[in-house]
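As a warm-up, study this chain.
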Amino acid sequence: MKVLVVNCGSSSIKYQLLAMTDESVLAKGLVERIGMEGSILTHQPTGKDKVPLKADIPDHSKGIEMVLAALVHPEHGVLKSMKEISAIGHRVVHGGEEFADSVLITPEVMNALTRCIEMAPLHNPPNILGINACAKLMPGVPQVGVFDTAFHQTMPKYAFLYGLPYEAYEKYGLRRYGFHGTSHKYVSQRVAEEMGEHMTNLRIITCHLGNGASITAVKYGRSLDTSMGFTPLEGLVMGTRSGEIDPAIIPFLMKKEGMSPDQIDNYLNKQSGVLGISGVSSDFRDIEDASAQGNERAQLALDIFAYKVRKYIGSYAAAMGGVDAIVFTAGLGENSPPMRDKVCNGLEFLGTRIDPEKNNVRGKTKEISVDGARVKIYVIPTNEELVIARDTKMICSALV
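Now compare it with the structure written out below.
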């Protein structure tokens, strides 16, 4: 079985084609600047050079059409025909309380995704566009929705409810949903394998640290709590997102600056985080470079981020009654030894300490805690596409 994994953003499409007999990646790529000038598809067959394909890409349907054409191209393609694609797996950001697991896409599911748009107005519409485009171009090929929120549907009410009148939850679904679920699920499974244990025997804290960042307490195989909330804005300070703040700041700023609801939303989502603190960039690599050159605000941004991560790790260890493993993943978590060291400096009370030599690793699975540490620390590269492909294979195999 060959599975096409599709991740549609507002102006982009990431994709991978996997052969599920051995879970190998046959090709991957990125469509960028959809609906804008300079739109391009960068296609890469495994083991070969990237192929840039510039074209006018007005919408997601055209983008998907170009992806399929690239996959069957006589020179840089990896398929003889589109009929070789057995199923399509889509990353869908918000499933609300409607979905606790991945599902086969049906008209009823599409209606539910539409209902969830108001909870993820930036993410769900392009996800829906991608599903519709694939249905149009590959009629009859089964499609599966894999939700960022699904892994966190095991959270108990005392963890996911806010201190609002209960009617706000009943009427509007105002609660913590959590995101990056496929990543947290994957790395918690992988660390259990590395430790020679089963997830159901372990208390794991997974740290998905990138431009978007979240932390999850995985207790005995189930998400107990997670840092992102009703939207991906809550929780840690991130690249451009403020993370958790005193909610009274919002009306205060709206009055002082004369901001509309859309403007304050943009301010908190696009102008805040380490970008707003440092004044340098939302990219942690740029901030680390600026800090090394003596930029005090850049250093402050790094200090704040590490402190927030460390606070969450400590609180989640308390919530689970202990911790057996801490995992770092995603762009920053996988590739920044200094940030990992900074986060873990002060967690010795938990029974763990980073080994500086082992910590000198980027983008590879490795234990980085000192020998004999009671709590293990790991770096594990995430692979959300593989999770999506596996779920798609499992659901579609049952259709035969």
